[in-house]
User: What shape does this take?
Amino acid sequence: MRPEPFFSGPGLDRADPLRADAEAIARLAGSPKARQLVWSEGLPAIAEDGSLVWREVSAPDLFLGLDRDEPRFTAIPAAVEGSRAAFGVMSNLSPDEAPIFAAALSLGGWHGRHRFCATCGAPTSIVRGGWSRTCPRCSAEHYPRVDPVVIMLAEYEDSLLLGRQPQYPPGRYSALAGFVEAGETIEDAVARELKEEAGITVADVTYVASQPWPFPSSLMIGCSARASAAELTIDTAELEDGRWFSREEVAAALHGDHSAPFQPPPRFAIARTLLERWLAA
Ligand SMILES: [Zn+2]
Assistant: This one.
């Protein structure tokens, strides 16, 4: 089976046609089958078996969607956990419910940070079941933001370029990444980031897979690229180290061998999926 990025999958039926109908959403919230997401320390709560925790509806601020015929809601959390502290909590999260976790965390956090109109400064109100905010003063509409990030494996003669950020756990190497800038294509962002961070020129940028990353609202766009030469000039302001790893070395790392030359990224990172797919190809 082809490895899929964590947080991907259909999750809930988003039921977009219902969002414009405030009365229909209110009826769904009053249904005995409706459930509301439980939060714990700024994150959707995760039970011991890895499932999300739901209870009776009391504050249906945001309509997350339908699980078959069960409406699912969440309150807007007072604050969300955006730091690496979340990663430990997520290690137990079920892949089936991970897309719901990602949507609720990203959407809940967006509402907390966007209570005022970016155009005129007036307080905004929630519309479309929580998938938009509107300004009563200037009528501007505001939508939850999604920030595209490219994350890529550069290949040269069957070796991969991986880098180390200073905040990584000891031994960890991962794919290089960076935000797509205004006016830039995905392909150009991949080439620019690899040039800036590692000093390499690449061609044949190819899309591989994507992943919502709710810290707070990124969309990770996984790509591959072919480097024209092996010589590296690492930007030490961005990376602590960067180097090429052979297919055997990547295999050893993913298999958890004691002799592996690096620790791979965790299972919920799309960098891990990119490495697994490269190895399987
Ligand atoms: Zn306004």
In short: The mean pLDDT is 96.
